[in-house]
Amino acid sequence: MAKMKKRADPRKIKREEHKQKLSKLQERVDNFGEDEADKEVSKFEELPLSEATIEGLKNSHYVTCTDVQKRAIPPALQGHDLLGAARTGSGKTLAFLVPVLECLFRNKWSDVDGLGALVISPTRELAVQIFQVLRKIGRCHSFSAGLVIGGKDVAMEADRLAKLNILICTPGRLLQHMDQTSGFDLSNVKMLVLDEADRILDMGFKKTMDAILENLPVDRQTLLFSATQTKSVSDLARLSLADPKYISANPDTTSSTPKNLEQNYVCVELQDKLDTLWGFLRTHTKFKIIVFFSSSKQVRYVYETFRTLQPGIPLLHLHGKQKQGARMDVVSKFSKASSSCLFATDIVARGIDFPAVHWVVQVDCPEDAATYIHRVGRSARFGKSGKALLFLTPTEEPAMIQRLEAKHIPINKLTIRPNKKKSIKNQLQALCFKSPEIKYLGQKAFISYYKSIFIQKDKEIFQFEKIPSEAFAESLGLPGAPQIKLGKSAEKMKEEANAKKNQSRALQKLMRAGDDGVVSDDEKEVRTKMDRMFERKNQNVLSDHYLNMVKGDADEDEETGDFMTVKRQDHNLESDDDEDVANLPTSKRAAKQALSKKQSLKNKGLGTKTLFDDEGAPHALYEFDDEEDFKAAGPVESQVKEFVDRETKDMEEADVGDKELVKQKRAEKKRKRKEIERLRELDEYDEESEEEGDSEEEQAAKKPKWFQRDESSDEEEDDGVLEVEEPTTLEDLESLTSKLLKK
Ligand code: ADP
Ligand code: MG
């Protein structure tokens, strides 16, 4: 017996050992930095980390700490709040993920403890990337980690949420779960990390973040990381940071751009930008290049036209209006490519770690120096070298260069060799003439560009009035500048925006107007003009989708655009063929409804059952019953009750079956629709992808108001023209004045 007992002991001993190890580790953490030798630490294994973390790092080939990791990890382990600023590509991700793992480990976190650490990223792509790094270095731990980003099924995510210990997410989706998912509890969170913190704290995410922060425990630890760190007092107050430590790891220079990044700019007229870009790509076909534009419309136009003209380098494009699957695909393709050109919006401006990007080209001027720093930071990462090229129009040049100089960004002016110049204007014109889709994209790109300039904060750089509209339209291959009458509506919008303290809606409107050329009242004229033009011309060659849009009767659930009116309000939703009905013009629909069994039953009232005697005369059912038998069966009330109960039960059973059937039919329909969509995508015309944002918007319409706002901010982010609200509020001015952390 005694022996048996002893045998059970090893587990206890193990537990005891583990406990001792933990307290030893804690001791090492607490005392770290007291020894002089600790300052010389250069390897992860010399830091007071758990074996599992060290093992995970080693297996992922991380051995030596980078500067920011060396400086940030120890104080983070000791529980301090951090403000970490280090150049792009200097290894900030590990600087916060290691403390996340260690914090939970030393708190003996397990499944039952729920969510312990929350990492927030401004974009989906960056969240995915952080998650991948976490999976690599955390593999020897037993925590469960999850990724919660938009573009996926909320319900599916919701199922897993309750079990997660570490969550990587985008602000919008996190808030959505806080709102909708029962059992999702933030009250236990020990650590909050904001990657690209200044971006998350700026106006675009303000409402969302405030709602999130409200639900987090105050005694949590908070880590903020970015290459362009916020110092705004109100930002820090919002986060209730407790005596934060500033970690700055840009030791050899005050600039936040990598040392081995060669930075250049050229001065180009707006109308010559595409020629210049074309010339650049033709002479750089063996490189890996990212080209930034200010809006998704421009990305699409340039992508569609350039791929037809074939510059001789594989082209890819990435923007927020694509479906999530397509976005992921592009990211992985571009990551693997050795030579490729990616046209993108600011959606990938921050944090994304594409390996070995040779060139970052900015065709449209970044909205501020911070955005510039992040964009060029996609190249020359982690000690590699890279080059950057910025296009500035003569009006943008003086002010923008000033802004960059103020941040100590070393940038050289280049001129393009005249013999390398080649105009593609004629080809673009021919393309627009031949293809109404291209022309349509061109018009949208034109409008979007105007909007993007209009909503910029820095009016010294972005001078809306000075856009050479005719020449610009011509350079896009358009026969004339689309008449958007922005002058007038711009004034109006400005007034509106100034009047409203909360601008996100105005901006949302503005953005949508930019996206579809539709929406607000004073913009209506724009739309009708374009619409009329398109209705008149080439109607049969336009894509079905476009025609649907014009008619306003696109039918699919997930694809309903925001410019469509509610067209299903009188649908019989139980009917499994409601979508077919939606497609029919009113008269046919009315006809179909009139023939519908369900409808006619509705009007008929209750049925009666009649039996016929031998002579063929009708009788009510009871007339055939024997009165004695009836009486014998019990009192009337109980018979009635029995009958009703029986029928109810039957009905309920039938109902379950029916619902199942309807569900199956719907699923089948959805599958077919997806199939068609995929075919269309294969057809290489991805007008559908436009609707991605819209479907979210449609969902948002069903959500509480405060949530809708958030969607708007997501959308803005997707369009890459965020951080653009007019600087009318205190926060705005503050974020404008927030400076780089200097040594
Ligand atoms: P940042 O967030 O500062 O822009 P990342 O965390 O994305 O930088 O890291 C940039 C690159 O450096 C990544 O490819 C990453 O794998 C690599 N890296 C980071 N830390 C280390 C390290 N200690 N040893 C080797 N490579 C590292
Ligand atoms: Mg990063």
From TrEMBL:
Keyword Hydrolase: yes
Keywords: ATP-binding, Helicase, Hydrolase, Nucleotide-binding, Nucleus, Ribosome biogenesis, RNA-binding, rRNA processing
Region ranges (Disordered): 1-37, 568-615, 643-743
Residue ranges constituting the DEAD-box RNA helicase Q domain according to the UniProt record: 42-70
Keyword Metal-binding tagged: no
Listed GO biological process terms: rRNA processing
EC number assigned by the record: 3.6.4.13
One cellular-component annotation, GO: nucleolus
Subcellular location per the Swiss-Prot or TrEMBL entry: Nucleus, Nucleolus
Residue span(s) of domain Helicase C-terminal: 260-424
Catalyzed chemical reaction(s): ATP + H2O = ADP + phosphate + H(+)
Extent of Acidic residues compositional bias: 683-698, 712-734
Motif stretch (Q motif): 42-70
Function: RNA helicase.
Protein family: Belongs to the DEAD box helicase family.
Domain notes: The Q motif is unique to and characteristic of the DEAD box family of RNA helicases and controls ATP binding and hydrolysis.
Name this polypeptide is given: ATP-dependent RNA helicase
